[in-house]
Amino acid sequence: MKGGERDRGILTPADRAYLRGETQLASDQSERNARSRIRNRVRESIRDFEVLIEHLPERDRRLVFEKQFDELDGPAAYDALVSAIAFLYLGVEDTDFAVEELLGEGINVAEAKRDRSASVTFERTYHSLSTETLLDRLEGGESLSLTELAYLQRSDDLSRSELAEHLADDETEIDDGRIQAKVTNF
């Protein structure tokens, strides 16, 4: 497979191209049909995790995560897992279920496979993102996470050239959340 091409997962290569805005569908009806198919496959894929946790042999799971994820280039495996957790977190927030409860139950289902249980504590502290606050932090010499930089890049309050000027300072540090997340004890 070339460059960005991958085998089908939940999404087909055509679905990925559509969601990234790289392709246009022929009609509004085609677009509605594609979005409906994607939603249905996402739902059924999430339901498949119950089959995977109950019936996929440990050896196969380990091969996926220890071998196949190790073969991905650079941070691709880490980013994929973070995105999976982020997608599920947002999805749970869209339901009536409590994230804390589902997280604890999910961890305990996994730990039961190892003949143990876990006490799970989950704490969230929210911080609003604003262009002004993040620029103040940059000007104060603080580092920004990749998420915060992405927020600035998407902001309508700041042009890309203005952002580049703020980042051009040799003393500006970029905090790669991958490293931070690995050493931060949540």
Written description of the protein model:
The protein is mostly helical and 186 residues long. The protein folds into two domains: 13-112, no CATH class; 131-183, no CATH class. It has helices spanning 13-19, 28-55, 58-68, 76-93, 99-112, 131-139, 146-154, 160-167, 177-183; strands spanning 144-145, 174-175. Strands 1-2 form a two-stranded parallel ribbon. The chain is globular, with a radius of gyration of 20 Å.
Looking at this protein, list some descriptive labels.
2 strands, two-stranded parallel sheet, 60% helix, disordered C terminus, single chain, mainly alpha, 186 residues
Q: In terms of structural class, how would the helical and strand content be classed?
A: mainly alpha
- Total domain modules: 2
The best one-word shape is globular
Order of helices and strands: HHHHHHEHHEH
Let me know the average pLDDT.
85
User: What share of the residues lie within helices?
Assistant: 55-70%
What would you report as the Rg, rounded to the nearest angstrom? Answer: 20 Å
Q: Quote the distance from N terminus to C terminus.
A: 38 Å
